[in-house]
Every structure is written in structure tokens, then in C-alpha cells.
Amino acid sequence: MLPADIDETPRAKESPRALALRLARAKALAVDVADAVVLGADTVVAVGRRLLPKTETEAEARACLELLSGRGHRVYTGVALKTPHGLRTRLGEARVSFKVLSVAEIEAYIQSDEWRGKAGGYAIQGRASRFITGIVGSYSAIVGLPLFETANLLEGAQEGKA
Asked: Which single residue of 11, 40, 122, 132 could bond 27 by disulfide (Cβ 3.0 to 4.6 Å)?
């Protein structure tokens, strides 16, 4: 795995889904290995058009969890496949509902450190799974790699379509 060091700053008036796709494209294009097949992906969490950060501090994580408590939000994961024949993208999407979180639940999750670097301040595949009351859409997109969309991109590449 080669990391793609890109600027993830959202552009003015950029929608969450457009941001997820742009970042996935940028990550795939940033890895420059001749004749390689490169997969880039990025996950964005939003409440309406409000983008939540990939949390780096306890204060950011706490603010995200407080905002998500008792409400729904959307998770978008863009995936881009670069081949010698071109670049194709897909978007995985899910609506996620959180239960109302107590202060104690938020603080226990903060102490777990599981939130570090996670879009929206949580990892659904870990301790935060108990906060989820409903999901509509792609679970794997919430985790960070939409498997259905990725499989379609890879199958298309095998057929020489991308």
C-alpha cells in the first residue's frame, strides 16, 4: 500500500458526495507507478451539507459525537480505480441513525481512542456499532471501502473497460 499525500480541504460550496469522489480520484492519481492498477478511496461524513472532520483531537471527536447523537447523517465513500486504460469512479452511500448518546457514552468512546482519524469521529466496525439504530445503504461504504462499487470497478477493468 502506498499512501497518497493530498490536500483534503473541501472547496467552497463543494457537496459532500462531490468531495468524496474528488478525494478518491486525487488519491488514485497521486500514486504514480507505471502500468499499475491503483485504487483510491475516501470517506466523508455529513449532517446535511455540514462536513464533519476526520477527527484528530478529543474536542473534535466529542463535538462530532454530540452533533450525531439522536440524529441521522450520511456517509459517502468515493472509490477510484486508475488503470493504464483510464480512471473510473463510483460512490458508496449510506444513511446512518444514531441513538441519543449520554455524556458517559461519549466520554467512554473518547477514552477508547478509536475515533482518531475517523471521518465523523467514529468507526462503525468497532465500539461505535452500539450507537447505531439504523442504516440504509452500504455498510461497507461506512467502514471505508464500498465493496459492491469496488468489485464493479475491478470487473470492468478486467474486461478492459477502464
From this structure: 40
Judge whether 118 and 93 are in contact, CB under 8 Å. Answer: no
pLDDT at 160 over 70: no
Say which DSSP state 119 is in: B
pTM beyond cutoff 0.85: yes
Q: What percent of the chain has pLDDT over 70?
A: 97
Instruction: List the catalytic residues.
Output: 42
For the chain, the structural domain boundaries read: 16-158
CATH node for 16-158: 3.90.950.10
